[in-house]
Each structure stands twice: as C-alpha cells, then as structure tokens.
Write a structure and sequence with these properties.
This protein is 75% helix and 1% strand. The protein has helices at residues 4-33, 36-43, 48-77, 81-95, 98-109, 114-119, 141-162, 165-177, 182-211, 214-219, 227-236, 241-279, 289-318, 335-340, 345-372, 383-388, 396-409, 417-442, 446-453, 458-469, 471-486, 490-496, 503-511, 516-544; strands spanning 319-321, 331-332. α8 (165-177) packs across α9 and α11 (227-236) packs antiparallel against α12. The chain is globular.
Length: 550
C-alpha cells in the first residue's frame, strides 16, 4: 500500500504534535536548568550525589539483569517446551502493570510478607515479623528485582519480534551441520546479529529505570531517594524556587541518561570486538546441562512470582484479619469491594477511555509511519525509528518537566484530559511502533502487489489483504499501547494536576500508605483493565482472519 501523497501531511502532523514539542521542551529545560541560581540551589541539596549514584546503580543493574535474562532465555529455550509456554504467556506478563506488580512484590517481600510466612515459624522460629528492611532498602535491591522481572518479558518480546523464523532456521541448520550445539549457535551466530534490533528497546529500559518514579515510591529507598523521585518531590513543593531546582535536576538526570546510554553502546561494541575471536575459534564442546536447568528454573520462578503477586493482591483485598505468621487470612471480608465499587465507576471509565483512545491514535500513527516507509531502502528506514523512540530514550521526568515549561512559556495552562492524552501519546506511540516494526518488516509485500495488480486500490489492498494478515500483531500492539497508557503515572499527574485521576495515580497514592487491603484492591483493579483488553486482543484476530483459528 502506497500513501506517498499523504507522506508530507503525515510528517507535518508528527512534527507539530510530537517532534516540535519534544525539541522545544528540551531547549527550555536546558535554558532553565543552567540558570545560576537554580544550579546553586540544586548543588546545595544534601545527599544529591548519593541520589545520583543510586539512580545510576538501579538503572544499570536492572538493565543488565534484564538483558542477561533475555539472552539466557533465547540461548537455552530454543525447542524447549517451557519456551513455548513462555511465548504464550508473554501477553499476560506484559499486561501486569508496573504499579500493581510493585504492590504485589511489596506484599511478598515485606518482613510480614507472604514469602516469610511460607517458612515461618517452622524454619525461622519467627512468631512476630522481624526487624528487616526488605522494602525500601538502601541499595534499592527490591526495586532492581521488580524492574528485572517486568522488563525481561518486554525485551524478550522485542527480540522474538525481530527474529526472522526462516533465517533462524537456516542458521540453526548451518550451525548443526558444522557440529555446534544449540546454545553455541545462539551465542555465536544469532545473538551478535540481534544486538542492533535490541539496541533501542535496551536503551528504553535503561531510561525507564533511571527516571522511574511510581515504582521507586513503592519499592525504592527514601533516605535519600533516587534522583527522579527527589525531582518530583521538589516540583510539588509550593515554594516556586524549587521549580528551578527541579529543572536543573532534570537536566542532570538527562546527562546521566546520556552517560548510561553511552556505556551500553560501549558494552555492545566491546562484546562485538572482544567476543568475535571466540565466536570464530571453531571450538565445539558439549553443552553443560546446568545453564539450561538454571534458566528453566528461572522461567518457572518468574511465572510463580507473577502468580503469587496476583494471589497476594486478591487475598489482601478480601482479608479482614491476617496476622503473622498465618499463611492465610483468619477472617475474610468483602467490605472494601462493596463500599468502593459503586463509587469507582467514573475512575475506571476515565482510565479506560484514555487508554483506548491513546492506543487507537498510537496504532493509527504507527501504521501510517510504517506505510510511509514502504519502498524505501533499508538503510534509509532507520532514522524514523530513532526519532519516534526518542521519548523512550529520555528520562520521563526530564522530558515532561521541559514540556511543562513549554506550555507555560506559551501561556497555556497545560491541564486537562486533552493534555493528559497528548502527554501519554508521546510515550505510548513509540511502544506501539516498536511492536509493529518487526512484523511489518517481515511481511511479504508481494501479496499486496498482487492485490494491486488485480485492480484493488492501495487502501482496499491494505484493508482486505495486509490488515487481516497482520491482525494479530496489530491488535497486540493496540493492547500494549492500552496497557502502557494505563500505567502512565508522571504524565497524568503533571498534566492532570489532580483534575484527571486514573486508577494508576490512585494505586500509587494508596500503595504508598499503610492500608494493605485498599492497596490490594486498587492494584487488582489496575490489573483487571489491561487483562480485559489483552483478552479481547487474543480473541479478535481469529474473528478477523479465520485462517488464524488453525
């Protein structure tokens, strides 16, 4: 399908609604952040460099952990039954929002959490919760663990989308004829070639870990907190001089992000330069069974943790009395559900329509962007990917603070549902584009050319041929977009200013408190919305294209 007459209009629309605000926001952030008074106020803050180091440590450790887990899953999972199960469960794993997952992890890891209850008092002798700092620990280990568990399915999905099955089969056949084992084929042939496809998703994971606020409020250290959390607290201060400090801090966070991305690029270069001699040494060796066993155990642990998170949210939302070290609540009550559900209708509806509208617009933009690149040379089609994914490669706090400065500079209040939708679109659209980029690149354009040769118009050829064949990735990308929109915390707060409230903002506010029953209820509700959307996504492709039923 060719939309060349619309290409200029599409590029102009993207420039006005996405590219220009991002560029202008970063420029204003640079000007405000470098003001002398603002820099002085920032540098005078106690524990600033500790927060900087903590942010780099959390982002770097979680990114490398997710990358290592993804590489092991790809290298050890080919042809394994558990890998087929994991592929089928990627959608539910991605549907679990970060905030709901963090609340459930807190229920598991707390000194009175479910994990310690499983072995108490039989193995520990604890009759009362121990005085352990398993949550909000100074090293941010709980936050790192949660980020690894949530980002590994995303990286795995991006890797699987980028792999061409026919090419993988040929390389595996070639490696087997040369006497290499399955893991050796992956480490020596496939993973080095996968680096370029994983580069942008990996950078997005690093930027998210560096600028995450909602998860850090629930699981991260607070004495001092990571830099992104401190920026958000300064921005909320009624004293306006702290807005200047937050602008300087956002600029510092942006510099840390560039440093982290440069380190990841250096790691990729080092892996290629130093590992090439080992890839080409020609050595054959029998694979050890232990890495495969550990990987398989890790997969089942990942699935078990997600199930435990879901179960803990459900149990705490229904528990009336659950004292330590009892494994189950001794008294049950649905009082919170009965009292809150009648009043939660507007909140759930506002969250749902924002997510569906944002995902729909993102899907439309992604399809137009990919269609506009049809017929271009492969090396010319990479620059839109970098530009589209730019919001994901920057810390949310830095970009959003710049956008707020820009709306103020133009005399706009920047508050309301429309502004929240636009701010979420900046982050949802790149995720949808990434989900569709691989399937679009692998699609055989000869099918649409055949439809055009039979007299179909370009739009009809897309609607009757290409669309149904790509129904599954299109709807899956829509589901990912809706889930990402539902999980947006900082854009909703900055551009909603309390007037636009979603289930995520309420879940973070309640999850940071002491009422576990309400936290479990809100976490479970935040989980049910994307699960409902993903259920439709898995059901609709078979209705659109009957060939997918087999």
């Amino acid at each position: 399908m060719s939309i060349r007459p619309w290409r200029l209009l599409f590029l102009l629309l993207c420039a006005l609604s996405l590219a220009a605000p991002v560029a202008g926001g970063l420029l204003l952030l640079l000007l405000a952040g470098l003001a002398k008074g603002h820099v002085s106020l920032l540098l005078a803050q106690p524990g600033l460099w500790h927060s900087v180091g903590l942010s780099l440590w959390v982002a770097g450790a979680s990114t490398l952990g997710a990358l290592l887990c993804t590489a092991l899953l790809l290298a050890r999972g080919e042809g394994q039954p558990w890998m087929r199960w994991l592929r089928r469960l990627l959608s539910p794993l991605l549907a679990l929002p970060h905030v709901a997952f963090a609340i459930g992890v807190a229920f598991l890891l707390a000194p009175s959490g479910w994990l310690l209850r499983l072995i108490s008092p039989a193995l520990t002798g604890f009759e009362l919760p121990p005085d352990w700092q398993t949550l909000r620990d100074p090293w941010g280990l709980g936050l790192i663990l949660a980020l690894i568990l949530k980002e590994t399915p995303f990286l795995l999905l991006m890797a699987l989308s980028a792999l061409d099955p026919a090419r993988v089969s040929r390389q595996q056949w070639l490696g087997q004829t040369m006497g290499f084992s399955g893991p050796q084929i992956w480490w020596r042939l496939l993973l080095p070639a996968l680096w370029p496809a994983l580069r942008l998703p990996l950078y997005a994971v690093a930027a998210y870990g560096l600028g995450v606020v909602d998860l850090a409020l629930l699981l991260g250290p607070d004495a001092p907190a990571p830099l992104a959390v401190r920026l958000w607290l300064w921005y909320q201060d009624p004293d306006l001089q702290w807005r200047g400090a937050s602008a300087s801090g956002a600029l510092l966070l942006l510099a840390l992000n560039l440093l982290l991305l440069a380190a990841l690029r250096l790691l990729e270069w080092g892996h290629g330069a130093l590992g090439k001699a080992r890839w080409l040494d020609g050595r054959r060796s029998l694979p050890s069974p232990w890495p495969e066993r550990l990987t398989r155990a890790g997969v089942w642990a990942l699935l078990a943790i997600n199930l435990l998170v879901l179960a803990s949210l459900l149990l705490w939302s229904l528990a009336r009395r659950w004292s330590f070290p009892a494994l189950w609540p001794s008294e049950w009550s649905g009082r919170h559900w009965l009292e809150l559900l009648p009043t939660l209708g507007p909140l759930l509806w506002q969250s749902l329509w924002l997510a569906l509208l944002c995902a729909g617009l993102s899907l439309l933009l992604a399809v137009l962007a990919l269609e506009a690149q049809q017929g271009r040379r492969p090396h010319h089609s990479q620059w839109p990917l970098w530009l589209i994914c730019l919001p994901l490669l920057l810390p949310q706090a830095s970009l959003l603070f710049g956008l707020r400065l820009q709306t103020g500079a133009f005399g706009l209040d920047g508050i309301g549902p429309g502004w929240v939708l636009w701010s979420q679109l900046l982050f949802v659209f790149p995720y949808v584009y990434l989900c569709l980029h691989g399937p679009y690149r692998q699609f055989d354009d000869r099918l649409t050319r055949a439809a055009l040769s039979l007299g179909a118009s370009p739009w009809r050829a897309w609607w009757r041929v290409k669309g149904p064949l790509l129904a599954r990735p299109l709807l899956f990308a829509f589901g990912v977009g809706a889930a990402v929109s539902l999980a947006q915390y900082l854009p909703t707060l900055l551009f909603g200013a309390g007037r636009v409230v979603t289930i995520t903002t309420e879940a973070v506010a309640i999850g940071s408190g002491l009422n576990r029953r309400l936290a479990g209820l809100y976490g479970l509700l935040q989980l049910l919305l994307p699960l409902f959307i993903y259920g439709l996504v898995l059901w609709l492709p078979r209705r659109i294209n009957p060939a997918l039923r087999h």
